[in-house]
Design brief:
The chain is α+β, with helices and mostly antiparallel strands and 155 residues long. 21% of the residues lie in helices and 45% in strands. The chain has one domain: Porin (Beta Barrel). An 8-stranded antiparallel barrel has the order 1-2-3-4-5-6-7-8. The longest helix has 25 residues. The chain is globular, with a radius of gyration of 16 Å. The N and C termini lie far apart (54 Å).
Length: 155
């Protein structure tokens, strides 16, 4: 019984932290830029360099295949090269949290990805010529997506 109580409390704490993080992200300066963005037109094609403002990450960007509505992430392999990991599919639609905003969704819910990655849905909007602002959502509880941050893509 103690185990279930601890599990329940842990889940509640996780949900509370996720709600707080989502609120912070949804009330940030990047959110104001995001909602002013436009649905990418034309769809991104080829390699786009990625960055996560304020963080040093091994993620280098995304490679898009517009014709097949798909793509893959590019990482620094720490040996001076690059590695492709974590495929995704793309589709146009309304924002998960920004219902009135048309976005390009980047969905990792495909069989070749690890289970923990399948809950992630990125959305991008175009904020300048060949410049995109992306938002990272995690879909753990149906109908209640959590937002964890922003990233940038540029040619």
């Amino acid at each position: 019984m103690l185990f279930f109580k601890l599990l329940f409390v842990t889940l509640l704490i996780f949900i509370l932290l996720a709600v707080i993080r989502t609120w912070q992200i949804e009330h940030s300066a990047d959110q104001k830029i995001f909602v002013q963005g436009q649905s990418p037109n034309p769809a991104p094609e080829g390699l786009y360099k990625g960055s996560v403002p304020g963080h040093k990450v091994s993620w280098l960007g995304k490679k898009f295949d517009a014709v097949n509505h798909s793509g893959i992430n590019i990482f620094d392999d720490r040996k001076g090269g690059q590695a492709e990991r974590y495929s995704f599919v793309t589709a146009y639609g309304s924002g998960l949290r920004d219902k009135n905003l048309a976005v390009l969704k980047i969905d990792y819910n495909i069989q070749s990805n690890p289970f923990w990655l399948r809950a992630i849905l990125d959305e991008i909007v175009q904020v300048g010529p060949n410049e995109y602002l992306g938002k990272v959502h995690v879909r753990i509880i149906p109908g209640l997506p959590f937002t964890f941050g922003y990233f940038k893509l540029a040619c």
